[in-house]
Design brief:
Pfam families: Response_reg, Trans_reg_C. With 223 residues, this protein is of the alpha/beta class. The protein contains 8 helices and 14 strands. The chain is elongated.
């Protein structure tokens, strides 16, 4: 899963990005609305976390601007402005949820799962491929109901391939599923993840194979 975090408190943003990363969530972060608008044009996000008090204006103004582009990406407002009238204002402007600061990461994760379940595209959160069942929100995978322990980034690659099984997945798509836009990606990093993942899947008898489509990307096929 990939989300956009619009938050000007750097320490909070870094802590949130690290905490969400442990749940397998890739986080792109920006502190200003203008950059957020551009990032939503360039990338597809599963959800957006939005603060209200931002350097270039009221965060809520971002919601109608995004909706005018036709995107219905779930938005959770997270802010210290948490009086009833402020919550009503945010929800009336189109926010899918409203979370007052401070909050627990566990509560944020629960609210993320809730808004994603409402999304037609993500209604079926669990992914099946071969003998695997992958749960991206809980960062888990089983083979014939037996848990398979995978490093976070390998699991993100696996989920991205399994979601598009029997189709070629571009390298850029896989990299976007694993790294945020600020990270420097080594040229062979993705290939290394794939190589280790292949061995683990074979050892586990997962019933899938990952094929290299030279110069394009990778393809997962069920065996």
């Amino acid at each position: 899963m990939r989300i956009l975090l619009i938050e000007d408190e750097r320490e909070l943003a870094e802590a949130l990005s690290a905490a969400l990363g442990k749940h397998g969530i890739v986080t792109d972060h920006t502190v200003i609305l203008a950059d957020a608008v551009e990032l939503t044009r360039q990338n597809r996000y599963d959800a957006i976390l939005l603060d209200r008090r931002l350097p270039d204006g009221e965060g809520l103004s971002f919601i109608p601007e995004l909706r005018l582009t036709g995107k219905d990406t779930p938005i959770i407002v997270m802010t210290a402005l948490n009086e009833p009238k402020e919550r009503i204002e945010g929800l009336d402007l189109g926010a899918d949820d409203y979370l007052g600061k401070p909050f627990l990461v566990e509560e944020l994760m629960a609210r993320l799962r809730a808004v994603l379940r409402r999304s037609p595209e993500l209604a079926e959160l669990k992914i099946t491929a071969g003998r695997m069942v992958i749960d991206p929100l809980h960062l888990s995978v089983t083979v014939d109901a037996v848990p398979l322990d995978l490093p976070r980034r390998e699991l993100l690659v696996l989920a991205a391939l399994a979601r598009r099984k029997e189709k070629t997945v571009l390298r850029s798509t896989l990299e976007a599923a694993v790294y945020n836009y600020e990270e420097e990606i080594q040229s062979n990093a993705l290939d290394a993840h794939i190589s280790r993942l292949r061995k683990r899947l074979i050892d586990a008898g997962a019933g899938v194979a990952i094929h290299n489509i030279r110069g394009v990307g990778y393809l997962m096929k069920e065996e």
